Amino acid sequence: MLIPFFFVLREGGLNPSITELLTLLEAMKKGLAGQSVDDFYFLSRACLVKDESKLDRFDRIFAAYFKGVEDSLADLMGDIPEDWLRKQAELFLSDEERAKVEALGFEALMKALQQRLDEQDERHEGGSKWIGTAGTSPFGAYGYNPEGVRIGQQGSRNRRATKVWDKREYRNLDDSIELGTRNIKVALRRLRKFAREGAADELDLEDTIDKTARNAGLLDIRMVPERHNAVKVLLCLDIGGSMDDHVRVCEELFSAARTEFKHLEYFYFHNFIYESLWKDNRRRHGERIPTHDIAHKYGADYKLIFVGDATMSPYEIVYAGGSVEHWNEEPGAVWIKRLLNTYSKAIWLNPEPKQRWELTPSIKLTREIMEDRMFPLTISGLDAGIKALR
Amino acid sequence: MADTKFTGTSTYVATDDLMMAVNAAVTLERPILIKGEPGTGKTQLAVEIAESLGKPLFEWHIKSTTKAQQGLYEYDAVARLRDSQLGDDRVHEISNYIVRGKVWEAFESEEQPVLLIDEVDKADIEFPNDLLQELDRMEFYVYETKRLVKAAHRPIIVITSNNEKELPDAFLRRCFFHYIKFPDKETMSRIVDVHFPRLKKDLLSEALNAFYKVRDVPGLKKKPSTSELLDWIKLLLAEDISPELLNAKDSRKAIPPLYGALLKNEQDVHLFEQLVFLDRRAGSNQP
Description:
The structure holds two protein chains of two kinds.
Chain A: H1 3-11, H2 18-29, H3 37-48, H4 55-66, H5 82-92, H6 95-104, H7 106-119, H8 129-136, H9 141-152, H10 182-189, E1 194-203, H11 205-214, E2 223-229, E3 232-238, H12 247-260, E4 263-269, E5 276-278, E6 288-290, H13 291-297, E7 303-307, H14 315-318, H15 332-342, E8 346-350, H16 361-369, E9 374-376, H17 379-389
Parallel strand pairs in A: 3-4, 3-7, 7-8, 8-9
Antiparallel strand pairs in A: 1-2, 5-6
Chain B: H1 16-28, E1 32-36, H2 42-53, E2 57-61, H3 68-72, E3 73-75, H4 77-86, E4 98-100, H5 102-107, E5 114-118, H6 127-130, H7 132-137, E6 139-142, E7 147-150, E8 156-161, H8 169-173, E9 176-180, H9 185-195, H10 201-216, H11 226-239, H12 243-247, H13 266-285
Parallel strand pairs in B: 1-8, 1-9, 2-5, 5-8
Antiparallel strand pairs in B: 3-4, 6-7
């Protein structure tokens, strides 16, 4: 009897497995849920839901299903397919609306956003759907809402910016998100190289046995330093502009990378590498670090990882003065080659889907400069990239 | 199995859903995974289950360096090496140097035990995967002595997690799950009642009001939890603070006495004081 319920749960975005269903049935057979609907509810919840963030969704599906309203599933979608909603939003927003949104300006937009978030509780309704998504996003108030704003700005979707001199505030990538980073961590783990450095405080069993045997049985204890992850990583992240669409993936990567390596240095750049990078996006115009200094400070044994969509006008790469933000004396291609000369192990991770690489000249160009070491920012791409780094 | 129903104890208030999850785990002899805010009594739950069902308790506290193998057994090669030097006869029997871990101890218990695996998320990301087989079949193989250790009675396994790392799917599928949500006022007064039976009613309700107000302060890094509330009430009793003081008409504007027991973070204390200060200034401007 529970099989339809099981499938409704799966449709609703929960992913109970067959084993979990069998566990539930077994528990019911033992009479655990005999007394009341409440008991059954508690029992099925303990069996089928394994993540507290899904509890609410389970509650709604349970309520809907046992009221016999199967087709109300659509209503349950409140916070479910966020990506889907966001895409819908782009479809739903007419050109007129988009223009209106753009004309509002940043401040007004934030205010309107706030207002709309206040007005609506759980469910999104009406034409302002795209803000609704931001409202129910797991990243909290100002965490992800600016994303909503950025969607508004996507009128200029294929930005091939020429000159943007205005000073935009970029958010620091939030490294506190842990959601969905498990896969990335496991992939990054392959990059681990163990080395023994430091004080000898661990018993080397094999060596001890060997030495003791050679010593005719006289105990000769050998110690070695503890093994630890010796991979050093320089992470350079593109931020702002066309990267806004990929903020989330990058945040996940960043958050996973932070815990995986003992030596991880990160820097930000905008669109392409020039004579300086920065570490803090709020002070990016004041505190910049010369690229030369970075190459001198961090040894050649660091692995260099660029993360960026490499989507820009080709001028930004090959011409002096091509940068969209400032006047650069030397072209970006020269700077990146300098870095590549220092760091022989380097890759470029690109969040743009691979199919689009061929269609964007700047990606092709960057790929050539990187000597084909460009990989998509997916789990398999990450795997391949890590292999290239080893 | 009516005699093995867990219904909370004299010092532990269990909600209906928690009881159901625990009883399901007990009946089906499968592990139960407990999550929740720090200080909501996750670890305490295992102790209370053991007490209320009258079963022995084995506690395995996980640290960041803990390996799954350590819970099963460890081979003390150094001791064996030393004994061989001294010509001790024990050296010929390898099993003398197998040190049993908590899981082994629990498997060999005479009656069905409760095994607590505390803060499983502290360990390495692969830790839960390494224990899948053991938790599923309740058996493991000792390679040194070529012996299969099988649980005499499948233990009731309680696993707690603070959500520092995500747990693998395969692991989750084998467990029952319960999230201890923060108790509402009613449950909370039952909890306090259990701990301080002779607490005056008015003090309790005032203390709870003040407590939930502090919890509602936006932007706190660490919200005070049940265990902090209990500590605070203990302090209030020790200092003999009258309910009137908590109840004072301007209590919203005054800092609750001894709030150091509730707020453990310097930034939180600072934020809280600032808010109170602002509140007070706003209050004094009004007629």
